[in-house]
Protein backbone atom coordinates (compact mmCIF):
# COMPACT_ATOMS: atom_id res chain seq x y z
CA UNK A 1 0.00 0.00 0.00
CA UNK A 2 1.30 3.48 -0.74
CA UNK A 3 1.40 6.45 1.62
CA UNK A 4 -1.75 8.65 1.65
CA UNK A 5 -1.45 11.20 -1.15
CA UNK A 6 -2.55 14.09 1.06
CA UNK A 7 0.21 13.11 3.49
CA UNK A 8 3.02 13.04 0.89
CA UNK A 9 1.85 16.34 -0.63
CA UNK A 10 2.21 17.96 2.78
CA UNK A 11 5.47 16.14 3.62
CA UNK A 12 7.06 17.52 0.47
CA UNK A 13 6.35 21.06 1.71
CA UNK A 14 7.68 20.31 5.22
CA UNK A 15 11.02 18.47 4.80
CA UNK A 16 14.10 19.80 2.93
CA UNK A 17 13.59 19.35 -0.82
CA UNK A 18 16.86 17.43 -1.36
CA UNK A 19 15.97 14.86 1.32
CA UNK A 20 12.34 14.23 0.36
CA UNK A 21 12.86 11.11 -1.83
CA UNK A 22 15.15 9.42 0.72
CA UNK A 23 12.67 10.21 3.52
CA UNK A 24 9.75 8.70 1.60
CA UNK A 25 11.78 5.49 1.04
CA UNK A 26 12.27 5.06 4.82
CA UNK A 27 8.55 4.21 5.11
CA UNK A 28 8.98 1.17 2.83
CA UNK A 29 11.46 -1.13 4.53
CA UNK A 30 11.57 -2.46 8.09
CA UNK A 31 13.86 -0.34 10.25
CA UNK A 32 16.91 -1.53 12.15
CA UNK A 33 15.91 -2.38 15.70
CA UNK A 34 17.42 -0.36 18.55
CA UNK A 35 17.40 -1.25 22.25
CA UNK A 36 19.05 -0.10 25.45
CA UNK A 37 20.26 -1.55 28.71
CA UNK A 38 17.83 -1.15 31.61
CA UNK A 39 20.17 0.47 34.14
CA UNK A 40 17.79 -0.43 36.98
CA UNK A 41 18.54 -4.12 36.42
CA UNK A 42 21.84 -4.44 34.59
CA UNK A 43 24.93 -2.65 33.30
CA UNK A 44 26.37 -2.11 29.84
CA UNK A 45 29.11 -4.69 30.47
CA UNK A 46 26.68 -7.32 31.80
CA UNK A 47 24.23 -6.86 28.96
CA UNK A 48 26.96 -7.03 26.31
CA UNK A 49 28.19 -10.31 27.85
CA UNK A 50 24.62 -11.68 27.70
CA UNK A 51 24.19 -10.60 24.06
CA UNK A 52 27.48 -12.22 23.08
CA UNK A 53 26.55 -15.46 24.87
CA UNK A 54 23.22 -15.46 22.99
CA UNK A 55 25.02 -14.83 19.63
CA UNK A 56 23.08 -11.63 18.92
CA UNK A 57 25.06 -9.65 16.29
CA UNK A 58 24.66 -6.18 17.82
CA UNK A 59 26.38 -2.91 17.01
CA UNK A 60 26.84 -0.15 19.62
CA UNK A 61 25.41 3.30 18.93
CA UNK A 62 28.66 5.20 19.43
CA UNK A 63 27.26 8.41 20.90
CA UNK A 64 24.90 6.76 23.38
CA UNK A 65 26.26 4.45 26.10
CA UNK A 66 24.32 1.22 26.54
CA UNK A 67 22.33 1.58 23.29
CA UNK A 68 22.56 -0.94 20.44
CA UNK A 69 21.32 -1.65 16.94
CA UNK A 70 20.54 -4.94 15.19
CA UNK A 71 19.20 -5.71 11.71
CA UNK A 72 15.42 -6.32 11.64
CA UNK A 73 15.86 -10.05 10.91
CA UNK A 74 17.53 -10.53 14.33
CA UNK A 75 14.65 -9.04 16.32
CA UNK A 76 12.95 -12.37 16.94
CA UNK A 77 16.13 -13.87 18.41
CA UNK A 78 16.57 -10.79 20.64
CA UNK A 79 13.05 -11.21 22.02
CA UNK A 80 13.87 -14.82 22.92
CA UNK A 81 16.86 -13.97 25.13
CA UNK A 82 16.85 -14.17 28.94
CA UNK A 83 17.90 -10.51 29.01
CA UNK A 84 14.68 -9.57 27.20
CA UNK A 85 12.44 -11.73 29.41
CA UNK A 86 14.22 -10.51 32.54
CA UNK A 87 13.67 -6.82 31.65
CA UNK A 88 17.40 -6.13 31.43
CA UNK A 89 17.02 -4.63 27.96
CA UNK A 90 14.24 -2.55 26.42
CA UNK A 91 13.48 -2.36 22.70
CA UNK A 92 12.79 1.25 21.73
CA UNK A 93 13.34 3.39 18.67
CA UNK A 94 16.32 5.71 19.00
CA UNK A 95 14.11 8.77 18.50
CA UNK A 96 12.13 7.85 21.61
CA UNK A 97 15.30 7.63 23.72
CA UNK A 98 16.27 11.18 22.82
CA UNK A 99 13.38 12.80 24.70
CA UNK A 100 14.35 11.51 28.20
CA UNK A 101 17.99 12.16 27.36
CA UNK A 102 17.31 15.83 26.58
CA UNK A 103 14.93 16.32 29.51
CA UNK A 104 17.71 14.89 31.69
CA UNK A 105 15.86 14.34 35.00
CA UNK A 106 18.07 14.24 38.07
CA UNK A 107 17.81 11.95 41.10
CA UNK A 108 15.38 13.24 43.77
CA UNK A 109 13.55 15.56 41.37
CA UNK A 110 9.78 15.75 40.87
CA UNK A 111 9.00 14.69 37.30
CA UNK A 112 5.76 14.33 35.32
CA UNK A 113 5.23 12.16 32.24
CA UNK A 114 1.91 13.56 31.04
CA UNK A 115 1.10 11.03 28.26
CA UNK A 116 2.93 7.97 29.44
CA UNK A 117 1.72 4.62 28.02
CA UNK A 118 3.10 2.16 27.16
CA UNK A 119 5.89 3.72 29.21
CA UNK A 120 9.09 3.45 27.14
CA UNK A 121 10.09 6.97 28.10
CA UNK A 122 8.84 6.66 31.70
CA UNK A 123 11.17 3.67 32.15
CA UNK A 124 14.12 5.64 30.89
CA UNK A 125 13.24 8.64 33.09
CA UNK A 126 13.07 6.32 36.13
CA UNK A 127 16.48 4.86 35.23
CA UNK A 128 18.02 8.32 34.93
CA UNK A 129 16.50 9.25 38.32
CA UNK A 130 17.95 5.99 39.73
CA UNK A 131 14.49 5.14 41.11
CA UNK A 132 14.58 8.16 43.46
CA UNK A 133 12.42 11.29 43.71
CA UNK A 134 8.84 11.33 42.47
CA UNK A 135 7.85 10.32 38.95
CA UNK A 136 4.15 10.79 38.05
CA UNK A 137 2.94 8.92 34.97
CA UNK A 138 -0.45 9.86 33.51
CA UNK A 139 -2.46 7.84 30.97
CA UNK A 140 -6.24 8.03 30.40
CA UNK A 141 -6.73 4.96 28.19
CA UNK A 142 -7.61 2.03 30.48
CA UNK A 143 -6.02 -0.66 28.33
CA UNK A 144 -2.84 1.35 27.77
CA UNK A 145 -2.72 2.33 31.45
CA UNK A 146 -2.50 -1.32 32.50
CA UNK A 147 0.22 -1.96 29.91
CA UNK A 148 2.13 0.96 31.41
CA UNK A 149 1.78 -0.49 34.93
CA UNK A 150 2.94 -3.95 33.75
CA UNK A 151 5.96 -2.43 31.99
CA UNK A 152 6.99 -0.38 35.04
CA UNK A 153 6.74 -3.46 37.24
CA UNK A 154 8.61 -5.85 34.96
CA UNK A 155 11.42 -3.34 34.39
CA UNK A 156 11.96 -2.73 38.13
CA UNK A 157 10.66 0.86 38.43
CA UNK A 158 9.81 1.79 42.04
CA UNK A 159 9.64 5.62 42.01
CA UNK A 160 6.66 5.96 39.62
CA UNK A 161 3.14 6.90 40.68
CA UNK A 162 0.57 6.06 38.01
CA UNK A 163 -2.69 7.91 37.37
CA UNK A 164 -5.44 6.81 35.00
CA UNK A 165 -6.67 10.31 34.21
CA UNK A 166 -6.89 12.94 31.49
CA UNK A 167 -3.69 14.98 31.23
CA UNK A 168 -5.77 18.09 30.55
CA UNK A 169 -6.87 18.13 34.21
CA UNK A 170 -3.41 17.75 35.77
CA UNK A 171 -2.29 21.40 35.64
CA UNK A 172 -5.25 22.60 37.70
CA UNK A 173 -4.92 19.70 40.18
CA UNK A 174 -1.13 20.04 40.63
CA UNK A 175 -0.16 23.67 39.99
CA UNK A 176 3.58 24.40 39.83
CA UNK A 177 4.48 21.00 41.25
CA UNK A 178 7.07 19.56 38.85
CA UNK A 179 10.76 20.27 38.16
CA UNK A 180 10.57 18.59 34.74
CA UNK A 181 7.70 17.57 32.52
CA UNK A 182 7.66 15.38 29.45
CA UNK A 183 4.72 15.85 27.11
CA UNK A 184 5.12 13.12 24.50
CA UNK A 185 1.79 14.14 23.08
CA UNK A 186 -0.86 11.88 21.53
CA UNK A 187 -0.48 12.57 17.80
CA UNK A 188 -1.29 11.28 14.34
CA UNK A 189 1.89 9.11 14.50
CA UNK A 190 2.82 9.99 10.92
CA UNK A 191 6.45 9.03 11.58
CA UNK A 192 5.30 5.47 12.35
CA UNK A 193 3.64 4.92 8.97
CA UNK A 194 4.79 1.72 7.24
CA UNK A 195 3.74 0.94 3.70
CA UNK A 196 3.85 -2.81 4.51
CA UNK A 197 1.40 -2.23 7.42
CA UNK A 198 -1.75 -0.49 6.10
CA UNK A 199 -3.19 -0.34 9.65
CA UNK A 200 -0.43 2.14 10.60
CA UNK A 201 -1.99 4.68 8.21
CA UNK A 202 -5.66 3.74 8.30
CA UNK A 203 -6.79 6.34 10.89
CA UNK A 204 -4.92 9.25 9.35
CA UNK A 205 -6.71 12.25 7.82
CA UNK A 206 -6.15 15.99 7.82
CA UNK A 207 -9.29 16.26 9.94
CA UNK A 208 -7.69 13.92 12.52
CA UNK A 209 -4.50 16.01 12.51
CA UNK A 210 -6.53 19.15 13.25
CA UNK A 211 -8.53 17.43 16.01
CA UNK A 212 -5.32 16.14 17.62
CA UNK A 213 -3.83 19.62 17.44
CA UNK A 214 -6.66 20.92 19.68
CA UNK A 215 -5.95 18.21 22.28
CA UNK A 216 -2.21 18.97 22.15
CA UNK A 217 -2.88 22.67 22.81
CA UNK A 218 -4.88 21.85 25.92
CA UNK A 219 -2.29 19.35 27.17
CA UNK A 220 0.46 21.95 26.73
CA UNK A 221 -1.51 24.50 28.76
CA UNK A 222 -2.00 21.88 31.48
CA UNK A 223 1.73 21.05 31.44
CA UNK A 224 2.53 24.76 31.71
CA UNK A 225 0.32 25.08 34.82
CA UNK A 226 1.93 22.01 36.43
CA UNK A 227 5.49 23.28 35.87
CA UNK A 228 7.44 24.92 38.71
CA UNK A 229 9.00 28.32 37.99
CA UNK A 230 12.49 27.49 36.75
CA UNK A 231 11.24 24.07 35.59
CA UNK A 232 11.70 22.50 32.14
CA UNK A 233 9.02 21.19 29.82
CA UNK A 234 9.88 19.04 26.80
CA UNK A 235 7.19 18.85 24.13
CA UNK A 236 7.52 16.15 21.48
CA UNK A 237 5.54 14.19 18.90
CA UNK A 238 6.17 11.55 16.25
CA UNK A 239 4.27 13.59 13.66
CA UNK A 240 5.53 15.78 10.80
CA UNK A 241 2.46 18.01 10.74
CA UNK A 242 3.10 21.62 11.81
CA UNK A 243 -0.46 21.66 13.23
CA UNK A 244 0.80 19.16 15.83
CA UNK A 245 4.25 20.65 16.43
CA UNK A 246 4.86 24.35 15.90
CA UNK A 247 1.16 25.34 16.17
CA UNK A 248 0.44 24.05 19.72
CA UNK A 249 3.68 25.72 20.87
CA UNK A 250 2.63 28.94 19.17
CA UNK A 251 -0.71 28.75 21.02
CA UNK A 252 1.12 28.30 24.36
CA UNK A 253 3.54 31.16 23.68
CA UNK A 254 0.67 33.48 22.71
CA UNK A 255 -0.90 32.84 26.13
CA UNK A 256 2.14 32.58 28.43
CA UNK A 257 5.08 33.66 26.27
CA UNK A 258 6.23 36.35 28.73
CA UNK A 259 6.89 33.60 31.30
CA UNK A 260 8.65 31.17 28.97
CA UNK A 261 11.96 30.73 27.21
CA UNK A 262 12.88 28.00 24.77
CA UNK A 263 16.24 26.27 25.06
CA UNK A 264 18.41 25.28 22.07
CA UNK A 265 18.67 21.53 21.49
CA UNK A 266 21.77 19.95 19.99
CA UNK A 267 21.91 16.41 18.64
CA UNK A 268 24.99 14.44 17.52
CA UNK A 269 23.79 13.63 13.99
CA UNK A 270 22.88 15.59 10.88
CA UNK A 271 19.51 14.13 9.84
CA UNK A 272 17.80 17.07 11.47
CA UNK A 273 16.01 20.22 10.42
CA UNK A 274 14.92 23.37 12.23
CA UNK A 275 11.22 23.80 13.05
CA UNK A 276 9.23 25.61 10.36
CA UNK A 277 9.10 29.41 10.44
CA UNK A 278 5.63 29.47 8.89
CA UNK A 279 2.88 27.14 7.66
CA UNK A 280 0.03 28.43 5.50
CA UNK A 281 -0.99 31.78 6.98
CA UNK A 282 0.54 31.04 10.37
CA UNK A 283 3.90 32.67 11.19
CA UNK A 284 5.52 31.06 14.21
CA UNK A 285 7.23 32.69 17.18
CA UNK A 286 11.01 32.81 16.57
CA UNK A 287 11.65 31.05 19.89
CA UNK A 288 10.24 27.82 18.39
CA UNK A 289 13.33 27.76 16.14
CA UNK A 290 15.24 26.40 19.17
CA UNK A 291 13.40 23.09 18.73
CA UNK A 292 14.44 20.35 16.33
CA UNK A 293 12.83 18.09 13.73
CA UNK A 294 14.51 14.68 13.43
CA UNK A 295 14.34 13.35 9.88
CA UNK A 296 13.84 9.58 9.55
CA UNK A 297 16.54 7.15 8.37
CA UNK A 298 16.75 3.35 8.26
CA UNK A 299 17.34 3.39 12.04
CA UNK A 300 15.61 6.42 13.54
CA UNK A 301 11.98 7.53 13.28
CA UNK A 302 10.97 11.10 12.50
CA UNK A 303 10.40 13.18 15.63
CA UNK A 304 9.78 16.76 16.78
CA UNK A 305 11.15 18.17 20.05
CA UNK A 306 11.08 21.58 21.71
CA UNK A 307 12.30 22.41 25.24
CA UNK A 308 10.64 25.20 27.22
CA UNK A 309 11.74 26.72 30.51
CA UNK A 310 9.43 28.61 32.86
CA UNK A 311 10.96 31.84 34.08
CA UNK A 312 11.50 32.15 37.82
CA UNK A 313 10.34 35.77 38.22
CA UNK A 314 6.61 35.14 37.71
CA UNK A 315 4.50 37.55 39.77
C1 LIG B 1 2.77 9.11 21.96
S1 LIG B 1 1.90 8.15 23.07
C2 LIG B 1 2.96 8.10 24.46
C3 LIG B 1 4.09 7.12 24.35
C4 LIG B 1 4.88 7.02 25.62
N1 LIG B 1 5.37 8.32 26.08
C5 LIG B 1 6.06 6.07 25.50
O1 LIG B 1 7.18 6.51 25.27
O2 LIG B 1 5.84 4.85 25.63
C6 LIG B 1 0.66 9.24 23.62
C7 LIG B 1 -0.20 8.71 24.74
O3 LIG B 1 -1.10 9.76 25.14
C8 LIG B 1 -2.27 9.17 25.57
N2 LIG B 1 -3.34 10.20 25.62
C9 LIG B 1 -4.40 10.39 24.79
N3 LIG B 1 -5.17 11.39 25.25
C10 LIG B 1 -4.59 11.85 26.38
C11 LIG B 1 -4.92 12.84 27.33
N4 LIG B 1 -6.04 13.59 27.18
N5 LIG B 1 -4.14 13.01 28.40
C12 LIG B 1 -3.01 12.28 28.57
N6 LIG B 1 -2.63 11.31 27.70
C13 LIG B 1 -3.42 11.10 26.63
C14 LIG B 1 -2.51 8.07 24.53
O4 LIG B 1 -3.44 7.12 25.00
C15 LIG B 1 -1.09 7.53 24.36
O5 LIG B 1 -0.87 6.45 25.24
TrEMBL record:
The active site is at residue 238. It holds the Pfam family Methyltr_RsmF_N. Keywords: Cytoplasm, Methyltransferase, RNA-binding, S-adenosyl-L-methionine, Transferase. Belongs to the class I-like SAM-binding methyltransferase superfamily. RsmB/NOP family. GO terms for molecular function: RNA binding; RNA methyltransferase activity. This is Fmu (Sun) domain protein. Gene3D superfamilies: Sun protein, domain 3, Vaccinia Virus protein VP39. It comes from Sulfuricurvum kujiense (strain ATCC BAA-921 / DSM 16994 / JCM 11577 / YK-1). InterPro entries: Methyltr_RsmF_N, MeTrfase_RsmB-F_NOP2_cat, MeTrfase_RsmB-F_NOP2_dom, RCMT, SAM-dependent_MTases_sf. CDD domains: AdoMet_MTases. Residues 23-311 form the SAM-dependent MTase RsmB/NOP-type domain. One of its GO terms (biological process) is RNA methylation. Signal peptide: none annotated. S-adenosyl-L-methionine binds at residues 115-121, 139, 166, 184.
Amino acid sequence: MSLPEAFTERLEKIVPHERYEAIVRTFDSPKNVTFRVNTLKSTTQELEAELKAAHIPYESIGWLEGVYRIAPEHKLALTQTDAFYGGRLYIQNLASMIAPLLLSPQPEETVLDLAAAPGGKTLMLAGMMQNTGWLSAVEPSRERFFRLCDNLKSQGVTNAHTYMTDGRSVGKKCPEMFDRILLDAPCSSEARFKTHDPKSMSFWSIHKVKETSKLQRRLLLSAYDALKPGGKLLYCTCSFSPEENESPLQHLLERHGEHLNTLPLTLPFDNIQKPLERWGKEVFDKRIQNGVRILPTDTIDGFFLCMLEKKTNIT
